[in-house]
């Protein structure tokens, strides 16, 4: 439901009554074919929201070229017709589908739902009001979103970097970080927006790719690249791409006369005042919750934090203060794409937790008539040529194409349709297939990527196998791209139809593959993430086996005090352990380790064993790997040699127990990034900055006269954690920045521990007499990961953490179907992110567990045993490990015989095997060697 | 309220990347989903991005 | 008569075929000499197809993926 908003809500979890207001689109969605004739004729130009006002759109428009739904809409605020009755109306006149409806009205829908998820997102901070950065006054000051559009090939300049003021090629760009973030004076947003450091580096690197020799500088307070692989990108940007990073906050931008150049004043790292000129200044604007989202929160009764984000608990990161209403994405705090995707799945899992009994109640399956067997029939091909209004017919001589199709071998019927995809044509097509007894169909229209599913349904409705249709792409790949050459376009359309006819003639009926699913889950690891995943799956109604290597549940939680927001980890972990132990659907295997596994999605069989050799085998449909991580034992700063040098976890323990060294310590020095972000471990451990800042606050609050120092590289108190950093500074904690080339030193002299570091404010070395030195050590991967890597064939990255299927879009899935990852096993992260990922893993798992079988596309590889001689070349190239070698008994001649076997559940139909096989021993149905050969022949026949 | 009286449908307000993921997962798990989007098309902010960090993959 | 080459292009369904569709959406213009054959992955293109296409008179073959 687009152009729609929540207007009211009543009721309770399980049974909400929601009022949705749908604004008029003035374009009939069922009729619009997105041909663009209307926008081409529309005389009114407006700033494009999609291009962040760097480009223009018309008053009738689609949001962007790949928009879903790809349907036009009229912006009534700007449309001439709506300003003056009877005026303009060009769009209505040119629309070939008759889709324009100026009389469209607002509609109110009453909808009954069991739960609500709020995922309204964020808005970018608008820097024009604050004035200081010159945004809105100087054309060459742009926001990062605008710069993103300039970089994009689909943007206003098609990716050419030129200055908005004069079109001059850009040679020198400055990025100013924290515009609208970490700044209460100019915008009131005290929090860190968590994404700007990353997009600024990315844009700087991409810009350098676009313009060779471009100089880029990023002005920042801290570089907060705390996510997976983020620090490596940062290093590469610095070392390989040559992006310059300057640690300072620039407070003003001034124009240099009339030239369009911009002048920045700042204090460099040597403490000198510097003046520098740039062609373009990019403001790295933060994220914030706009008023309309605040209104949505008020309407639904969801509590917000002081920063206007939805308030959540660290142990239930997607549940709002209102029962049955959930949240995901930037609404509950600024976050990046993978975290947002993760929370999307997590919110789905949390909803399923409360609605489990009603699963499947409202979703329904379509029914189709009995399929006709066409094996022994002679080919009777029907060709349907689509006009697509004037989109095809305006260029291609469709009549000539249809007449030509009639002459092709096997073709018994041809016809032309104004819109082949329209509802009435579909119904008529079903009748034609039946009455003419067609057994193969070619639709010459748009692209199979969007419309093949529709025509497959048509065939099914006509009692034909859905695979007996082929599309000839005579719009996207013909009439639209050769509109200036109708003659060639018509000739090409004939060729494309000939190719499609040749291919479909060789198509056989295929049956979608059904793979049964064992509706049970296996969770490996009984820490917070593993328990949260297991509990959610069980609450959704599935049986879960929880395997924990040690004799107790809890994992790292037993060492931790409280989350960043102050919730007690001990209390919550105890509660979680209790819930897991009491849940009847969770079977706990303590003291067991995974030894061996086989199978594939829906059908895994895992053998677990104790140290004494007691083994059990578990049959399960999905698996969640949550094997955690551990704290590094450091080798530097005198650890192990100097008694007063401790790791953060050791210090926490002493401090909690009121051990006298900790109690008496008057000067405490925290050293950050011990083992993180250097050498072989070029990643940020994400939690240590917040942890040290919290400990420093505790120390100061207990005794304000203590001297507490934090020696850091970049202070990464991201998101709403920034308030802790601020609080620590207010309490007098001293923060001193160091770089890897000048790391702190820890030495003992006459029983006194001295910490040495370079002071960047005073520009001289500093020596601190410390009573206690606390090392913020890295989180390292669990060495068991390597075992699981071999057992389940799930990949691990160079740092030993598990590798997800896609860094952005599949952050909890493994590349192997049916297996998921959560918690520290994936990457260092704080509790709420572990829980979110665990819920997400459970949510993803539930998409499989909720059905007894999955249906897969029938385009799969199949061995042809007449030719396969078991040479096994295909086994090595198969990226999905779907092919295995089978040996059969020796034949009459005494020769052992081998051939391949394809596991269709694992096969994705990519055909690497077919492309590799020298003997035609394997075929991909729907794309057989014979079919592709016939297409080549047909293409070159004339 | 009895569990059986719960309604097996969900409303998601916001069709950005996170809302779409939630919608897909819920629909795949057997729930009826209403995805409500304020603008004329789903996709949200991610659709505006050119490339993504840190893989430089196309954002579309 | 000027020379009009015939080119066979094998396009992967998930990337280059989608790109060719998008070129249409953007109304980009290019010569009508290319015939696109959709495959599920460019890895599916057997070397035999390339020799066959050239043997049957194609002036060029593109494998895009």
UniProtKB/TrEMBL annotation, chain A:
Keywords: 4Fe-4S, FAD, Flavoprotein, Iron, Iron-sulfur, Metal-binding, Oxidoreductase. It comes from the Bacteria. SUPFAM superfamilies: 4Fe-4S ferredoxins, FAD/NAD(P)-binding domain, Nucleotide-binding domain. Its cofactor is FAD. The keyword Glycosyltransferase does not apply. It comes from Desulfofustis glycolicus DSM 9705. GO terms for molecular function: 4 iron, 4 sulfur cluster binding; metal ion binding; oxidoreductase activity. Pfam families: FAD_oxidored, Fer4_7, Pyr_redox_2. PANTHER family: COB--COM HETERODISULFIDE REDUCTASE IRON-SULFUR SUBUNIT A (PTHR43498:SF1), FERREDOXIN:COB-COM HETERODISULFIDE REDUCTASE SUBUNIT A (PTHR43498). Belongs to the HdrA family. Residues 23-52, 70-105, 857-888, 898-927 form the 4Fe-4S ferredoxin-type domain. This is Heterodisulfide reductase subunit A. The keyword Iron-sulfur applies.
Automatic annotation (TrEMBL), chain B:
Keywords: Iron, Iron-sulfur, Metal-binding, Oxidoreductase. PANTHER family: COB--COM HETERODISULFIDE REDUCTASE IRON-SULFUR SUBUNIT A (PTHR43498:SF1), FERREDOXIN:COB-COM HETERODISULFIDE REDUCTASE SUBUNIT A (PTHR43498). It comes from the Bacteria. It holds the Pfam family FAD_oxidored. This is FAD dependent oxidoreductase. The keyword Iron applies. InterPro entries: HdrA-like. One of its GO terms (molecular function) is oxidoreductase activity. It comes from Desulfofustis glycolicus DSM 9705.
Automatic annotation (TrEMBL), chain C:
InterPro entries: MvhD/FlpD. Signal peptide: none annotated. Residues 7-65 form the F420-non-reducing hydrogenase iron-sulfur subunit D domain. It comes from the Bacteria. Keywords: Iron, Iron-sulfur, Metal-binding, Oxidoreductase. One of its GO terms (molecular function) is metal ion binding. This is F420-non-reducing hydrogenase iron-sulfur subunit.
